[in-house]
Amino acid sequence: MSDTYCTDCKRNTEVVFDHAAGDTVCSECGLVLEARSIDETSEWRTFADDSGDHDPNRVGGPVNPLLGDAALSTVISRGANGSNGDASMARLQNRGGDPDRAIVLAFKTISNMADRLSLVTTIKDRASEIYKRLEDQKCTRGRNLEALVAACIYIACRQEGKPRTVKEICSIVAGATKKEIGRAKEFIVKQLKVEMGESMEMGTIHAGDYLRRFCSNLGMSNEEVKAVQETVQKSGDFDIRRSPISIAAAIIFMITQLSDSKKPLRDISIATTVAEGTIKNAYKDLYPHAAKIIPEWYAKDRDLKNLSSPKA
């Protein structure tokens, strides 16, 4: 409550503000001193821990620091029910053009792809940042937007330590092939190398980076997942010259042969997006070291005889 002059009481009296009706009422005589007031305070509760000088009183669109106007521009729309009351103003605004229209579309595409891949916000923001750096260099015009965005997401996943395969990303992209995404990735690395004056840090890929997701796709038990993780870790002591994703797929195939729920090679190939022939070749290289890399608590020596022998 605060003190305000009341015309009926002829003096300053305490007034009560009715938030529901927007009325300011005298606490002594009940006179409505002001009606339908606009509440200019926050539209949400502010707790003690949140108190500070940066309390945003009014709501609005989310602020995006990657856009020139922080996404706080004004858009003039048509009148209600499609009337042409503001049509002329809208036409004038469209004629002027929106310099951020292309990058806003790219950010929306990144967000949609990231949601379909179930990626965290940090990866989504990193991909948007990479694309913004390309846009600042004016080198995106005339290039396939889907391929560029997919490549930005691929690079962001690697930099955040949560890599995705090109095949996984390609599976949710409609307007770009695997080869186009690969070319876009090389283009981005080259352009950012020119900007920074040094090679772009992409992050190192390890076989263990894929395990959780692949094992989850195959519905493997916690015990099997633990055995796969330990096997991958021990395999690093040997010179297996295969890609990390091929090693991960081959070890999953190896461990599932020793479990009760054996997985067909075709199912593993689909879950890991690795060709069956590639898995067989990696398995052939790992097979001689099986006794040393598979944990003893999971499989004894006699159990290792159940492993299928790779064909020469």
TrEMBL record:
GO cellular component: nucleus; transcription preinitiation complex
InterPro entries the UniProt entry points to: Cyclin-like_dom, Cyclin-like_sf, TFIIB, TFIIB_CS, TFIIB_cyclin, Znf_TFIIB
Lineage: Eukaryota, Viridiplantae, Streptophyta, Embryophyta, Tracheophyta
TFIIB-type domain segment(s): 2-34
Protein name listed in UniProt: Transcription initiation factor IIB-2
Taxonomic source organism: Sesamum radiatum
One Pfam family this sequence matches: TFIIB
Family classification: Belongs to the TFIIB family.
Subcellular location, record wording: Nucleus
Keyword entries, A-Z: Metal-binding, Nucleus, Repeat, Transcription, Transcription regulation, Zinc, Zinc-finger
Signal peptide stretch: none
